[in-house]
C-alpha cells in the first residue's frame, strides 16, 4: 500500500505504518518496505485496529485503549506480542497532525519476555512518562514541516527518534537484567573507557585515562555501556555550556546554553582490584547518593533517570561493588571494585 506521507517511511529501518483518523475508523494509508517484509502487505481499507488484532497481547503504556490513544495521537507506546515468530514489539505513536499519525514498531525479541521480566515492572511508568517529550517534539516538527515545507524540521524529528531509541534501549537493558551477560577473559578496562568516550558527545570536555588500568573477566559490551553512562552523566551536567535538551544525568549544573564555563575534566583511574571515574563538576549531594541509582530518579525534567540505574545493574551483574563519593575537586567519583 502506498500513498502520500509527511516522512519518507522507506528510509526508516523499522516497520512503520501511517494512518488517518476518520469517523469510521483508523484506515492504514501507507506502510514502508520494512513493515511489508515483517508483517506482509496491507490491503486497501485495512484499519490499524485490524493490524493490532493480529497480536495476542496489545498493552498501551497509557491508561486507555490503544485505539483511543491512536485516534488522539497520544505520545504513548504499545507493547505487542503473540503476532508470529518475530517480536515482541514496542510500537510508538507519532502524531502527524491534521488527523494523521504513524506507528513505529521496534523489535524487542532479543530481550527477555517483557511480560515476565522484573526489570520492566520497575520502569514501566518511566516509559510512559518519558517517551512523551520526544514524541511531542517530533509531532510538533512534523506539523511545522507540513505547514512550512522546511526540511530542517525533519532533523529535529530524527533527533527525537534517536532520543526515543535511547529511552527504549535503557529500559530494555534493565529488563534483560543480568541474564544477558557474556563475560570474556582479558577485557581491558582502558580500552572499554576509550571506546566509550568516542560514542558520547564530549564537546568541551576532556578525558584522562590512567595507563595502569586493570584487565579482567567481564562483558566488554556492558563495560563500555557502563562507561558511556558515567561519562554522559559527568559531561552533560559537569559543564554549564552546550547542554542538550534532555539527558539521563543526575548531577546539578546550570542549563544556560550561553554559559562559557570551563570544560569538565573526567578522569579514569586505577584502584586496587578495580577502577574509578571522577569529574570536577558540581558533584552529587551526599543526601542523593543512594537515590540516584533508583530507576526513574532524575534531577532533570528531561531525563529518563535510568543512566545510573544501568551502571549499578551492570556492576552488580559482574559481581562488582559500586560506590559513589565526592571527587578531590568536589565533583562525583564512582568507584568500582572487583570483589
SSE blueprint:
Layout: E1 16-20, E2 28-31, H1 33-39, H2 48-52, E3 57-60, H3 66-72, E4 77-81, E5 89-97, E6 100-107, H4 118-130, H5 132-148, H6 152-176, E7 184-188, H7 189-198, E8 205-209, E9 215-218, H8 220-238, E10 264-271, E11 274-279, H9 307-317, E12 321-326, E13 332-337
Walkthrough of the structure:
- With 339 residues, the protein is of the alpha+beta class.
- The chain has 2 domains: 9-176, Beta-Lactamase (2-Layer Sandwich), CATH 3.30.450; 184-337, 2-Layer Sandwich (Heat Shock Protein 90), CATH 3.30.565.
- It is 34% helix and 22% strand.
- The protein contains 9 helices and 13 strands.
- It has helices at residues 33-39, 48-52, 66-72, 118-130, 132-148, 152-176, 189-198, 220-238, 307-317, and strands spanning 16-20, 28-31, 57-60, 77-81, 89-97, 100-107, 184-188, 205-209, 215-218, 264-271, 274-279, 321-326, 332-337.
- A 6-stranded antiparallel sheet has the order 2-1-6-5-4-3. It has a 5-stranded mixed sheet with strand order 8-10-11-13-12. The protein has a two-stranded antiparallel sheet with strand order 7-9.
- Strand 1 and strand 2 form a beta hairpin.
- 47% of the residues are buried.
- Mean pLDDT is 78; it is low at 1-7, 112-120 and 239-260.
Amino acid at each position: 500500500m502506498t500513498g502520500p506521507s509527511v516522512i519518507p517511511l522507506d528510509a526508516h529501518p523499522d516497520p512503520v505504518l501511517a494512518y488517518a483518523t476518520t469517523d469510521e475508523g483508523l484506515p492504514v494509508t501507507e506502510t514502508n518496505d520494512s513493515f511489508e517484509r515483517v508483517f506482509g502487505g496491507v490491503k486497501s481499507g485495512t484499519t490499524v485496529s485490524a493490524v493490532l488484532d493480529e497480536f495476542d497481547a496489545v498493552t498501551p503504556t497509557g491508561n486507555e485503549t490503544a485505539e483511543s490513544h491512536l485516534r488522539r495521537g497520544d505520545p504513548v507506546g504499545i507493547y505487542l506480542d503473540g503476532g508470529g515468530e518475530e517480536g515482541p514489539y514496542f510500537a510508538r505513536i507519532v502524531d502527524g497532525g491534521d488527523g494523521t499519525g504513524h506507528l513505529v514498531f521496534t523489535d524487542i525479541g532479543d530481550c527477555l519476555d517483557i511480560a515476565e521480566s522484573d526489570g520492566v515492572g520497575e520502569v514501566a511508568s518511566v516509559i510512559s512518562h518519558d517517551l512523551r517529550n520526544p514524541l511531542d517534539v517530533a509531532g510538533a516538527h512534523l506539523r511545522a514541516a507540513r505547514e512550512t515545507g522546511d526540511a530542517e524540521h525533519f532533523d529535529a524529528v530524527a533527533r527525537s527518534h534517536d532520543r526515543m531509541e535511547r529511552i527504549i534501549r535503557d529500559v530494555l537493558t534493565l529488563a534483560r537484567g543480568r541474564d544477558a551477560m557474556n563475560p570474556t577473559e582479558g577485557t581491558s578496562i582502558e580500552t572499554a573507557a576509550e571506546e566509550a568516550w568516542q560514542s558520547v558527545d564530549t564537546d568541551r570536555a576532556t578525558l584522562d585515562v590512567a595507563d595502569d588500568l586493570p584487565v579482567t573477566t567481564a562483558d566488554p559490551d556492558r563495560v563500555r555501556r557502563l562507561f558511556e553512562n558515567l561519562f554522559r552523566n559527568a559531561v552533560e551536567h559537569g559543564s554549564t555550556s552546550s547542554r542538550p535538551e534532555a539527558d539521563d544525568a543526575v548531577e546539578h549544573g546550570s542549563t544556560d546554553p550561553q554559559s562559557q564555563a570551563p570544560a569538565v575534566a573526567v578522569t579514569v583511574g586505577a584502584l586496587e582490584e578495580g577502577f574509578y571515574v571522577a569529574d570536577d563538576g558540581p558533584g552529587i549531594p551526599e543526601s542523593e547518593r543512594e537515590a540516584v541509582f533508583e530507576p526513574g530518579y532524575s534531577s532533570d525534567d528531561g531525563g529518563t533517570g535510568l543512566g545510573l540505574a544501568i551502571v549499578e545493574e551492570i556492576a552488580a551483574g559482574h559481581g562488582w561493588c559500586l560506590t559513589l563519593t565526592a571527587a578531590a575537586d568536589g565533583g562525583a567519583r564512582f568507584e568500582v571494585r572487583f570483589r
